[in-house]
Amino acid sequence: MQPISDQDISDAYLYLLSRLLVLRQEQLDFNKEGFKWNEIAHREVGGVAWANPNLDVAYSEAWVAVDESSCTVFSVPEINGRYYTVQFLNGWGETIVNINERNYPDHPSGDFWICLKGAPTQVPADAVRIDVPGKTARVLARVELGADPEQAIALQHRITVKPTGTPKIEPVPATPVFTNDAFPGAEAFDAATLALDSEPDINPGMAALQARVRAIAEAVKTPADRERVEKVIREQALPNFHKSFSTAGSNKNGWNRPATIGKYGDDFKTRTLINMAGIWANSTDEVVYFKTDSDGSGAKLDGGNTYTLTFAKDELPQAHVRYFWSVIAVDSNEFHVIPNDKDRFLINRQSRLEYGEDGALTLFFSPQKPEGAPDGNWLPTPKGQNYNLTFRAYGPDQAILGGTWYPAPLITTTEAAS
């Protein structure tokens, strides 16, 4: 396998891993969560088990299957005065479209026919047709809970799904199911043909990478080449991938912002990072995500420490978003919410926030509520564990989109007891 360099192997592996992460979730959804094609699941508030969930919203989820003779109709109720979107993603974790009043101002509600691109289906005059590039798609509907969660849940349950025919549905691809602390090695390439053939990559310029993946998939059938691929993955690709979690994109005040999100173009490495740490992430025209696993000095977050995050009066996060902001704590391996005695997993504008006399807002992160800290400003953290914070800005303004506004740095005020 001499013509293929170590860098070729690393790039091909990380490219393929993006698809395998989505397929892992697809298999879990159908085999463990009980999903069925073209049926929508309305999640209970807070009942989301994937990486970095958004607990500001009521989630509804579906896997959609279409073909040349069958579309799937999404009916969306009229929603006013709160954020909502129905996001469609392909099998690489790429956002295809968002249904909401921003993208469809003349038809923000009603029927939307999801059809295979090129299918000769006739759509009713009072409906909108949306073409998808492949025969399956993942859907996340989000309805902001806001100050009236009961109304949000009622609206959530009025989102319905119905196929127009009986699409031919292929079995869910049986690719490796793995954990984030045990990624596949050379065996990832054993599933390469199935992974690539089952879903088109909608980004241009991926042909060379796909050809490289297929070439390595053939090479690993030879023991010597398989051994080399395994060594490169374990000693180069995966260590560099994990290291890039904190360095990819741009960094300021100890916070990291991905270079792109939701729509990745040729940035396949960022796509793979996001599919690991926050699968089904939306595009920046909807939300900007900031994340950190360290304080403002660069020291890793320790759940036993007390940290403060202070926004000056003229830099409050609500002034930089059209809709809402929040910050959530997740574990540093699977990126799931961390259980605590308060059953409190995020801080947002519904958190009974208290502001200082100067108008500043200080948030607290610690295992116990610091003395004098307002209860609504405090998020419990896991003593004895590292963790990560994700800060969401929904409807970001130009200061966020342009990269001039970041969350303030985390300041360590109390060290964990030894």
CATH fold-level topology of the largest domain? Jelly Rolls
Structural class: alpha+beta
Quickly name the level 1 CATH class of the largest domain: Mainly Beta
CATH architecture designation of the largest domain = Sandwich
Instruction: Describe the main β-sheet briefly.
Output: 5 strands, antiparallel
Count of β-strands: 19
Looking at how many chains there are and whether they match, the oligomeric state comes to: single chain
How much helicity do the residues have? 10-25%
The order of strands across the largest sheet is 1-2-8-4-5
The arrangement of helices and strands along the chain is HEEEEEEEEHEHHHEEHEEEEEEEHE
Radius of gyration: 22 Å
* Unreliable sequence segments: none
Fourth-tier CATH superfamily name of the largest domain: Domain of unknown function DUF1214, C-terminal domain
Provide the β-strand percentage band.
Answer: 25-35%
Query: What is the residue-mean pLDDT, rounded to a whole number?
Result: 94
Shape: globular
